[in-house]
Amino acid sequence: MHDLVIIGCGGFGRESADVVDAINRSAPTWNLLGFVDDDPSAENVARVRRRGAALLGGLEAFSSRGRGVHYAIGIGDAPTRERVASVAEAAGMVPATLVHPWAAIGADADIGEGVVVCAYAQIGSDVSIGRHVHLDRASQIGHDCAVEDFVTVHPAAVVSGGCVLGPGAELGTGSTILPGTAVGAHAVVGAAACVVKDVPPGVTVKGVPAG
Ligand SMILES: CC(C)(COP(=O)(O)OP(=O)(O)OC[C@H]1O[C@@H](n2cnc3c(N)ncnc32)[C@H](O)[C@@H]1OP(=O)(O)O)[C@@H](O)C(=O)NCCC(=O)NCCS
Protein backbone atom coordinates (compact mmCIF):
# COMPACT_ATOMS: atom_id res chain seq x y z
CA MET A 1 0.00 0.00 0.00
CA HIS A 2 1.28 3.45 -0.91
CA ASP A 3 0.51 6.59 1.06
CA LEU A 4 -1.61 8.97 -1.02
CA VAL A 5 -3.13 12.42 -0.57
CA ILE A 6 -5.67 14.14 -2.79
CA ILE A 7 -5.03 17.85 -3.22
CA GLY A 8 -8.35 19.70 -3.26
CA CYS A 9 -11.51 18.46 -1.54
CA GLY A 10 -14.01 20.01 -3.98
CA GLY A 11 -16.20 17.97 -6.30
CA PHE A 12 -13.49 16.37 -8.41
CA GLY A 13 -11.26 15.81 -5.38
CA ARG A 14 -13.97 13.72 -3.74
CA GLU A 15 -14.70 11.95 -7.03
CA SER A 16 -10.99 11.12 -7.18
CA ALA A 17 -11.37 9.57 -3.71
CA ASP A 18 -14.22 7.46 -5.11
CA VAL A 19 -11.78 6.23 -7.78
CA VAL A 20 -9.28 5.36 -5.04
CA ASP A 21 -11.99 3.45 -3.10
CA ALA A 22 -12.92 1.49 -6.24
CA ILE A 23 -9.29 0.65 -7.00
CA ASN A 24 -8.80 -0.55 -3.41
CA ARG A 25 -11.93 -2.73 -3.57
CA SER A 26 -10.45 -4.36 -6.67
CA ALA A 27 -6.84 -4.58 -5.40
CA PRO A 28 -5.69 -2.89 -2.17
CA THR A 29 -3.24 -0.30 -3.49
CA TRP A 30 -3.58 3.08 -1.83
CA ASN A 31 -3.53 4.20 1.80
CA LEU A 32 -5.52 7.44 1.47
CA LEU A 33 -4.14 9.72 4.21
CA GLY A 34 -6.74 12.37 3.39
CA PHE A 35 -7.22 15.65 1.56
CA VAL A 36 -4.85 18.60 1.37
CA ASP A 37 -6.69 21.88 0.79
CA ASP A 38 -5.62 25.50 1.37
CA ASP A 39 -9.11 26.85 1.95
CA PRO A 40 -11.90 24.25 2.06
CA SER A 41 -15.46 25.59 2.20
CA ALA A 42 -17.59 24.69 5.24
CA GLU A 43 -19.74 22.47 2.99
CA ASN A 44 -16.71 20.56 1.76
CA VAL A 45 -15.31 20.16 5.28
CA ALA A 46 -18.65 18.56 6.25
CA ARG A 47 -18.62 16.33 3.13
CA VAL A 48 -15.06 15.13 3.85
CA ARG A 49 -16.03 14.38 7.48
CA ARG A 50 -19.11 12.44 6.34
CA ARG A 51 -16.92 10.11 4.28
CA GLY A 52 -14.65 9.60 7.29
CA ALA A 53 -11.60 11.12 5.59
CA ALA A 54 -9.03 13.46 7.13
CA LEU A 55 -8.24 17.07 6.22
CA LEU A 56 -4.49 17.51 6.38
CA GLY A 57 -4.18 21.31 6.05
CA GLY A 58 -2.80 23.45 3.24
CA LEU A 59 -0.35 22.45 0.52
CA GLU A 60 2.65 24.51 1.67
CA ALA A 61 2.46 23.08 5.19
CA PHE A 62 1.82 19.50 4.04
CA SER A 63 4.51 19.54 1.36
CA SER A 64 7.24 20.11 3.99
CA ARG A 65 6.48 16.59 5.27
CA GLY A 66 5.28 15.13 1.97
CA ARG A 67 8.50 13.75 0.43
CA GLY A 68 7.76 10.33 -1.07
CA VAL A 69 3.99 10.62 -0.54
CA HIS A 70 1.91 10.06 -3.68
CA TYR A 71 -0.55 12.74 -4.72
CA ALA A 72 -3.43 13.27 -7.12
CA ILE A 73 -4.85 16.72 -7.84
CA GLY A 74 -8.62 17.01 -7.57
CA ILE A 75 -8.82 20.56 -8.89
CA GLY A 76 -10.61 21.19 -12.19
CA ASP A 77 -8.99 24.52 -13.06
CA ALA A 78 -5.94 23.72 -15.23
CA PRO A 79 -3.69 26.70 -14.30
CA THR A 80 -4.25 25.94 -10.59
CA ARG A 81 -3.49 22.27 -11.23
CA GLU A 82 -0.25 23.24 -12.98
CA ARG A 83 0.82 25.42 -10.03
CA VAL A 84 -0.06 22.74 -7.47
CA ALA A 85 1.86 20.07 -9.42
CA SER A 86 5.02 22.19 -9.44
CA VAL A 87 4.79 22.81 -5.66
CA ALA A 88 4.18 19.10 -4.98
CA GLU A 89 7.02 17.97 -7.24
CA ALA A 90 9.46 20.50 -5.77
CA ALA A 91 8.61 18.95 -2.37
CA GLY A 92 9.51 15.46 -3.61
CA MET A 93 5.91 14.21 -3.75
CA VAL A 94 5.14 11.53 -6.35
CA PRO A 95 2.25 11.81 -8.85
CA ALA A 96 -0.23 8.92 -8.62
CA THR A 97 -2.11 7.69 -11.69
CA LEU A 98 -5.67 6.67 -10.74
CA VAL A 99 -7.73 4.63 -13.21
CA HIS A 100 -11.17 3.43 -12.12
CA PRO A 101 -11.53 -0.33 -12.64
CA TRP A 102 -14.69 0.31 -14.65
CA ALA A 103 -12.85 2.48 -17.22
CA ALA A 104 -12.10 0.84 -20.58
CA ILE A 105 -8.58 1.35 -21.88
CA GLY A 106 -7.57 0.43 -25.46
CA ALA A 107 -4.39 -1.20 -26.70
CA ASP A 108 -1.18 0.82 -26.58
CA ALA A 109 -2.71 3.67 -24.61
CA ASP A 110 0.01 5.70 -22.93
CA ILE A 111 -1.30 7.27 -19.71
CA GLY A 112 0.83 9.90 -17.98
CA GLU A 113 1.61 10.50 -14.32
CA GLY A 114 -1.05 12.13 -12.16
CA VAL A 115 -3.92 11.27 -14.51
CA VAL A 116 -7.35 10.56 -12.96
CA VAL A 117 -9.76 8.42 -15.02
CA CYS A 118 -13.28 8.07 -13.57
CA ALA A 119 -15.86 5.31 -13.90
CA TYR A 120 -17.13 4.44 -17.39
CA ALA A 121 -14.54 6.61 -19.15
CA GLN A 122 -13.29 5.04 -22.38
CA ILE A 123 -9.90 5.49 -24.00
CA GLY A 124 -9.43 4.08 -27.52
CA SER A 125 -6.43 2.43 -29.11
CA ASP A 126 -3.10 4.19 -29.56
CA VAL A 127 -4.02 7.21 -27.46
CA SER A 128 -1.50 9.27 -25.55
CA ILE A 129 -2.64 11.01 -22.38
CA GLY A 130 -0.30 13.59 -20.81
CA ARG A 131 0.35 14.40 -17.17
CA HIS A 132 -2.36 15.37 -14.68
CA VAL A 133 -5.19 14.98 -17.18
CA HIS A 134 -8.74 14.54 -15.78
CA LEU A 135 -11.13 12.24 -17.64
CA ASP A 136 -14.45 12.52 -15.82
CA ARG A 137 -17.26 9.95 -15.77
CA ALA A 138 -18.30 8.45 -19.10
CA SER A 139 -16.03 10.69 -21.15
CA GLN A 140 -14.61 9.13 -24.31
CA ILE A 141 -11.30 9.65 -26.05
CA GLY A 142 -11.19 8.12 -29.55
CA HIS A 143 -8.41 6.15 -31.19
CA ASP A 144 -5.17 7.90 -32.11
CA CYS A 145 -5.86 11.04 -30.04
CA ALA A 146 -3.15 13.07 -28.34
CA VAL A 147 -4.34 14.56 -25.04
CA GLU A 148 -1.69 16.88 -23.68
CA ASP A 149 -0.84 17.76 -20.08
CA PHE A 150 -3.48 19.22 -17.71
CA VAL A 151 -6.43 18.72 -20.06
CA THR A 152 -9.85 18.48 -18.36
CA VAL A 153 -12.59 16.39 -19.99
CA HIS A 154 -15.91 16.78 -18.18
CA PRO A 155 -18.57 14.04 -17.95
CA ALA A 156 -19.83 12.40 -21.13
CA ALA A 157 -17.74 14.55 -23.49
CA VAL A 158 -16.92 12.57 -26.65
CA VAL A 159 -13.65 13.11 -28.51
CA SER A 160 -13.58 11.42 -31.93
CA GLY A 161 -10.53 9.68 -33.37
CA GLY A 162 -7.35 11.50 -34.30
CA CYS A 163 -7.95 14.68 -32.31
CA VAL A 164 -5.33 16.76 -30.49
CA LEU A 165 -6.26 18.44 -27.20
CA GLY A 166 -3.67 21.09 -26.34
CA PRO A 167 -2.24 21.61 -22.85
CA GLY A 168 -4.81 22.80 -20.32
CA ALA A 169 -7.77 22.58 -22.72
CA GLU A 170 -11.21 22.05 -21.12
CA LEU A 171 -14.11 20.16 -22.73
CA GLY A 172 -17.54 20.83 -21.21
CA THR A 173 -20.03 18.17 -20.21
CA GLY A 174 -21.54 16.35 -23.17
CA SER A 175 -19.51 18.17 -25.80
CA THR A 176 -18.51 16.42 -29.03
CA ILE A 177 -15.27 16.90 -30.94
CA LEU A 178 -15.35 15.75 -34.57
CA PRO A 179 -12.59 13.52 -36.01
CA GLY A 180 -9.15 14.97 -36.56
CA THR A 181 -9.91 18.30 -34.88
CA ALA A 182 -7.45 20.21 -32.69
CA VAL A 183 -8.46 22.11 -29.57
CA GLY A 184 -5.75 24.63 -28.70
CA ALA A 185 -3.93 25.12 -25.43
CA HIS A 186 -6.19 26.42 -22.65
CA ALA A 187 -9.16 26.66 -25.02
CA VAL A 188 -12.62 25.97 -23.49
CA VAL A 189 -15.40 24.04 -25.23
CA GLY A 190 -18.86 24.74 -23.74
CA ALA A 191 -21.17 22.06 -22.45
CA ALA A 192 -23.07 20.27 -25.25
CA ALA A 193 -21.07 22.03 -27.99
CA CYS A 194 -20.14 20.28 -31.23
CA VAL A 195 -16.65 21.23 -32.41
CA VAL A 196 -16.42 20.91 -36.22
CA LYS A 197 -13.15 22.77 -36.86
CA ASP A 198 -9.94 23.57 -34.98
CA VAL A 199 -10.29 25.79 -31.90
CA PRO A 200 -7.43 28.31 -31.50
CA PRO A 201 -5.51 28.43 -28.23
CA GLY A 202 -7.17 30.31 -25.37
CA VAL A 203 -10.51 30.69 -27.17
CA THR A 204 -13.94 29.70 -25.71
CA VAL A 205 -16.44 28.14 -28.12
CA LYS A 206 -20.00 26.93 -27.54
CA GLY A 207 -23.10 25.79 -29.40
CA VAL A 208 -23.71 23.62 -32.46
CA PRO A 209 -21.65 24.05 -34.54
CA ALA A 210 -19.30 25.51 -31.93
CA GLY A 211 -18.10 29.04 -32.53
C1 LIG B 1 -19.45 27.99 -22.48
C2 LIG B 1 -19.03 28.43 -21.09
C3 LIG B 1 -17.54 28.17 -20.92
C4 LIG B 1 -19.32 29.91 -21.03
O1 LIG B 1 -19.06 30.40 -19.76
P1 LIG B 1 -19.18 31.99 -19.50
O2 LIG B 1 -18.21 32.71 -20.37
O3 LIG B 1 -19.06 32.21 -18.02
O4 LIG B 1 -20.60 32.33 -20.06
P2 LIG B 1 -21.93 32.85 -19.35
O5 LIG B 1 -22.43 31.86 -18.35
O6 LIG B 1 -21.65 34.26 -18.89
O7 LIG B 1 -22.94 32.89 -20.56
C5 LIG B 1 -22.74 33.72 -21.69
C6 LIG B 1 -23.81 33.40 -22.70
O8 LIG B 1 -23.56 32.11 -23.27
C7 LIG B 1 -24.68 31.22 -23.04
N1 LIG B 1 -24.11 29.91 -22.75
C8 LIG B 1 -23.40 29.54 -21.66
N2 LIG B 1 -22.99 28.27 -21.78
C9 LIG B 1 -23.46 27.82 -22.95
C10 LIG B 1 -23.37 26.57 -23.60
N3 LIG B 1 -22.68 25.53 -23.07
N4 LIG B 1 -23.95 26.45 -24.81
C11 LIG B 1 -24.64 27.47 -25.36
N5 LIG B 1 -24.76 28.68 -24.78
C12 LIG B 1 -24.17 28.85 -23.59
C13 LIG B 1 -25.43 31.84 -21.88
O9 LIG B 1 -26.78 31.47 -21.91
C14 LIG B 1 -25.22 33.32 -22.14
O10 LIG B 1 -26.09 33.71 -23.19
P3 LIG B 1 -26.70 35.21 -23.26
O11 LIG B 1 -25.50 36.12 -23.43
O12 LIG B 1 -27.59 35.16 -24.47
O13 LIG B 1 -27.40 35.42 -21.97
C15 LIG B 1 -19.77 27.67 -19.96
O14 LIG B 1 -21.11 28.08 -19.86
C16 LIG B 1 -19.75 26.16 -20.15
O15 LIG B 1 -20.53 25.54 -20.87
N6 LIG B 1 -18.77 25.55 -19.44
C17 LIG B 1 -18.66 24.11 -19.33
C18 LIG B 1 -18.79 23.74 -17.86
C19 LIG B 1 -18.90 22.26 -17.61
O16 LIG B 1 -19.23 21.45 -18.47
N7 LIG B 1 -18.59 21.91 -16.37
C20 LIG B 1 -18.67 20.53 -15.94
C21 LIG B 1 -18.48 20.45 -14.46
S1 LIG B 1 -18.67 18.77 -13.93
Description:
There is one protein chain. The protein is of the alpha/beta class and 211 residues long. It has two domains: 2-96, NAD(P)-binding Rossmann-like Domain (Rossmann fold, 3-Layer(aba) Sandwich), CATH 3.40.50.720; 97-203, Hexapeptide repeat proteins (UDP N-Acetylglucosamine Acyltransferase, domain 1, 3 Solenoid), CATH 2.160.10. It is built from four helices and 22 strands. The protein has helices at residues 11-26, 42-50, 59-63, 78-90; strands at residues 2-7, 30-36, 70-73, 94-95, 98-99, 104-105, 110-111, 116-117, 122-123, 128-129, 134-135, 140-141, 146-147, 152-153, 158-159, 164-165, 170-171, 176-177, 182-183, 188-189, 194-195, 204-205. The termini are far apart. The protein binds coenzyme A (COA). Pfam families: PglD_N. Keywords: Transferase.
Number of domains: 2
Order of helices and strands: EHEHHEHEEEEEEEEEEEEEEEEEEE
Structural class: alpha/beta
Helical region count?
Answer: 4
Gross CATH architecture of the largest domain: 3 Solenoid
Strand order of the largest sheet: 5-8-11-14-17-20-22
Specify the CATH class of the largest domain. Mainly Beta
Q: Give Rg in angstroms.
A: 17 Å
Q: Estimate the helix proportion, in percent.
A: 10-25%
Give unreliable regions as ranges: none
| Strand segment tally | 22
Shape: globular
Give the percentage of residues in beta strands.
Answer: 25-35%
Would you tell me the overall average pLDDT? Answer: 97
The CATH topology of the largest domain comes to UDP N-Acetylglucosamine Acyltransferase, domain 1
Largest sheet: 7 strands, parallel
Distance, first to last CA: 47 Å
Bound molecules: coenzyme A
Task: Name the CATH superfamily assignment of the largest domain.
Answer: Hexapeptide repeat proteins
